[in-house]
Every structure is written in C-alpha cells, then in structure tokens.
Task: inverse folding
DNA sequence: AAAATACTAAAGTGAGTGTTCTAAAACGTA
DNA sequence: TACGTTTTAGAACACTCACTTTAGTATTTT
C-alpha cells in the first residue's frame, strides 16, 4: 500500500563503496555520498541508519565483490598454485581494471584509518583479512601437494608472512615506489619459500590459535 | 631589545609530535594542540605557520629522535648484526618504552593517512622510510661480512623485503593480532635469508635506482 | 619613560560536519 | 476520492574545523 522506493539499494551501496575506496571514511562526507548515490541525506539515513553503518555495509560489499573475485581468480581458480600466489601478490598494486586503478585496497586503508573502538567495522575488517590469509594458506598447501614447495614448509606461517607484506606493498605503491622494486621483493620472498630451511623443522604441524 | 620568548620551541614540538603520533593528523585539532603544548593558537601560528607545517616539523622530530634512536640501538649499534635486525623488527610492536606504548609508528600512520598532494609531508615521509631501508641494508651487509648470511644474498632487496613487512606488522598488532604469530613470521623471514636460493644468483651486484 | 617585541585570551571568520525535521509526493487500498 | 503509509528532497540544526583578528599585558632595550 505504501509508496515504493525509486532507487536500487545495492547500486547505491556500490557507488558509496567506490567513494569510500577512493577517499577513505573520514574524507568522504555525507554531501559526497549524496552526490555519488543520487540520494538525499534523508533517504540514506532512512535506508542505512548512519554513515558508519553505511560504511560497514560498503566494506562488506568490497570484501564480497572485489576481494573474493581476486581470491577466486588468482588463488582458488589458479591452474598453477604457486604462480597464482605470485599473481595475487602482484595484482595488489598493478593490473587492476582501469576503473579501479590507483585505489589501493579498502581493507588496508580501513585498518590504518580505523579507530579502535569502532568494533562493528573492526569485526568486518578482521573477517576480510582472514579471508585472504586462509586463501593464501589453502593455495600454498595446494602448491605443496604438487611438490612446488618443500613438504616441511609451514603454510599457515608462510601465508601470514605474505599477508603481512600486502599493506607495505600498497603503501609503498601509493607513495610512488618503483614497481620493479616491489616486484622483486615479492619474487624473492616466494623463491625463499621454495628452499627448505632449518626453521621449518621446528614448526611442523599444530598451530591453531 | 624585545621581550624574549617564554616557551621552549622544541619542547612544544615534542608535545605536538606525541599527540600526532597517538591520534594522527586529522583527529588532532588545534584545540588539542593548544592543550598539549600549553601555547595559544596565536602563538602556534606565529611560530609554525600552519597545522600542516607543524605536522611536518613533528614528523621530522619523530624521525630524528624515535626512528634514529631505534636504528642506532638495534641496527648500527648491534654487536651481532643479524640478531640486531631481528630485534629491530620485533621492537616495532613490542618492548617500547612505557610512555610510547600502543602508539604504532608515526611514519606508517602518515603514509596511510596522507593525501597524495601534500607534497611537503610526502618528501619528509620518504626521507624517513629511506632511512630505515638503508639502515637495514647496511646491517644485512654487515651480517654478510660476518658470514651470518650467504654471500649471494642481495642485501638491498632483502632490506626492502623486511621494510615492506613493517606496515603489515604494525597494522596487525593494532588490530589485536596475537604477538606470537607476528614473531613467527619475522623469524621465519630471517631464517629464509640465511638459506641461499637460486633467485639470488640472478640479482647480484648493481641495483641502484 | 618610550618603543619594540612576545604572548595570551577571546571573539569571530566562513566553511564544513553528521544528523534530524518537515512537509510534500507517491503509491495501494477502502 | 480519501486514507494510511512510506519515500523523498531539502532545509535546518548544532557543532567542529583551521585560522584570523583584536585587545590587552608582560618583558626587554634604548
């Protein structure tokens, strides 16, 4: 019986996500969001509740679309797991679709910008980061099965090691670091994983915290 | 002839630096800076010109005091260069003096928060990051001289590799990542450097960009 | 004492912030 | 046609922001 809504919620959410991605949370004002979504502030608050809640949903949308697509494409969907991992790492700062270029990563940006006491966004953030770590570990395990990596390698720790490099890579890329330097650091790390080390022997098995 | 100034500029700068370190640039208002320094807004503007200029000087102070102290203590001043590097990496998220605790790193925070077109702060930032990379490379080279690392190791690339991990480590620590996971990732990376890999052979010598 | 400089405190600038209110508009049903 | 309900745009709210101005006071030298 009531008046039906005239806009597409998920389309508006996507517009908001792109804006947050490009500008971060703080630098994006409600006026910007009004312009980007085509909605008025009233409608936005009616639909999403608050700027923070909208951001949380935008972050979720980012994880579900952008991150999961990259995981599927470069990791789980990779024919060759080890070069898939390399592609995944490289794709964090190059070879993005043209519209997404120079956008860094919303997850990393959020982790840096986030105020500790915004626990709602914090849990969404951790969910996204864990998604990446797990996918990396899964793919390293697959590489191990194919004897691309030594049997002694701790894949969970190695996945963490790679995951820890991503923020640094993105920040460096944002600050005009030459791409070949980043590329070399990634390739060096991966080639080190291929070589068995004494340290691996001490940390086989368990490790579930 | 005139009335001499009654406040200590470098002391006020240090107070401002601590505040920026704890809260970041955007979240620190002029009112906060007035309270922290004990100066009135008028005096601050007379002395430093603008909030941005004050931040730039605070960042310089951070580099010259905090960063250089850590480099001297853990890298250049280390008896054992390799374990010095390990201590340097670990000290980024633990074992800080109690007053500095939970403060992450102003350099990393700035790199993340920075708007690309603030070129003044951008150059200061690069200066600080290069300081770290160079010190790491220097110390790895020293470790190589003592046969702690293989002669084939490219120290510049390895320094970059370690430097790229720092932002990730700090962001992870800020987001409640368990310290032992971070510790293991660091130690694993270092033990990998000790093992010669095929990739090293291709990248010996040159590399000056 | 006069001149010059340093500093504080407060008010005020104009722009921008997230959020709420209001009232009109648009629909399905009675 | 009129009603109940929801959507919508836009004004308005109360506030903070960086920054400037002004007026007054303090401390020095000439």
Result:
């Amino acid at each position: 019986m009531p008046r039906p809504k005239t806009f597409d919620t998920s389309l508006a959410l996507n517009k908001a996500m792109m804006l947050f991605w490009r500008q971060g949370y703080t630098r994006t004002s409600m006026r910007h969001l009004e312009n980007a979504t085509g909605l008025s502030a009233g409608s936005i608050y009616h639909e999403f509740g608050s700027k923070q809640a909208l951001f949380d949903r935008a972050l979720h949308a980012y994880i579900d679309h952008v991150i999961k697509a990259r995981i599927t494409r470069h990791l789980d969907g990779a024919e060759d797991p080890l070069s898939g991992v390399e592609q995944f790492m490289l794709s964090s700062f190059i070879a993005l679709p043209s519209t997404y270029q120079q956008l860094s990563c919303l997850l990393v940006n959020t982790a840096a910008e986030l105020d500790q006491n915004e626990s709602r966004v914090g849990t969404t953030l951790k969910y996204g980061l864990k998604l990446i770590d797990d996918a990396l570990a899964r793919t390293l395990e697959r590489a191990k099965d194919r004897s691309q990596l030594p049997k002694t390698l701790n894949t969970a720790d190695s996945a963490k090691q790679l995951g820890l490099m991503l923020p640094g890579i993105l920040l460096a890329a944002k600050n005009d670091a030459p791409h070949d330097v980043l590329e070399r650091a990634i390739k060096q790390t991966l080639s080190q994983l291929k070589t068995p080390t004494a340290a691996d022997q001490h940390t086989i098995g368990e490790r579930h915290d």
Q: What stands out?
A: The radius of gyration of chain B is 20 Å. Residues 1-7, 39-43, 46 of chain B lie near DNA strand C (CB under 10 Å from a C1'). Chain B is about 70% helix and 0% strand.
